Every structure is written in structure tokens, then in C-alpha cells.
Amino acid sequence: MERWIDVCVVDDIPVRGSRRTRFNGVEIALFRTSEDAVYAIENRCAHKGGPLSEGIVHDCAVTCPLHSWVFDLATGKARGADEGQIQTYPVEVRDGRAVHVRFPAR
Ligand code: FES
């Protein structure tokens, strides 16, 4: 059964930046865009495992710091000519501040 976890508040995530958390041994990167949208994806690039949380956030995407692949934060899919998929996790911002992430059961 999936469950929602209260992870942090929106202001804990820098605008156009990220914050890391872990769930069931998986490192998750939370991103906040310039429009204050929040996304959660696995913090591991589909190319060679780069730390996406250290990448550059632009519009609704992040550029991996290692070889510059770009991933859509909403879908987890690589953009452009690259192919790859990052695990995404549903996010809800409750009461305008609390970030909840839905994780799968293990
Ligand atoms: S490890 Fe991310 S682009 Fe290569």
C-alpha cells in the first residue's frame, strides 16, 4: 500500500534548488521551481547515476551535473536526443506549505 509522508515545508527547498531525503533506502531529490512547483524524483541520473539534486533547475526540468542530460521533473523522462527515465513520486503541498510525497510500499 502506498503512503503519503510529510517530508518538509516548501521553504526548506531553495527556489530553483533542491533538498534530499531518503525513503526505504532510496535517495529522493525534491525540487522547487521558480513558479514554486515542487517535484520529487529519485536522486540518480538514468545515464550514469549522477546526483540530480546537484543539477541546475530550469523551467520544469533539471540538468544533470555530470554530462548535462536534461530530465523533465514532472515525468522523469529525458528530454532532447537522450533516452532515459527517472522514477518520479507524486507530491502534494498541503495548507500552502507542507510537502507530502507518496511513496510506494515495500
Ligand atoms: S550521469 Fe547524468 S548525464 Fe551522465
UniProtKB/TrEMBL annotation:
UniProt KW Acyltransferase keyword: no
Gene3D superfamilies the UniProt entry points to: Rieske [2Fe-2S] iron-sulphur domain
Domain annotation Rieske: ranges: 5-100
Pfam annotation, one family: Rieske_2
Domain of life: Bacteria
InterPro entries: Rieske-like_NirD, Rieske_2Fe-2S, Rieske_2Fe-2S_sf
Residues that span the membrane, as ranges: none
Assigned keywords, A-Z: 2Fe-2S, Iron, Iron-sulfur, Metal-binding, Nitrate assimilation, Oxidoreductase
PANTHER family attached to this UniProt entry: 3-PHENYLPROPIONATE_CINNAMIC ACID DIOXYGENASE FERREDOXIN SUBUNIT (PTHR21496:SF23), FERREDOXIN-RELATED (PTHR21496)
Protein name listed in UniProt: tRNA-(Guanine-N1)-methyltransferase
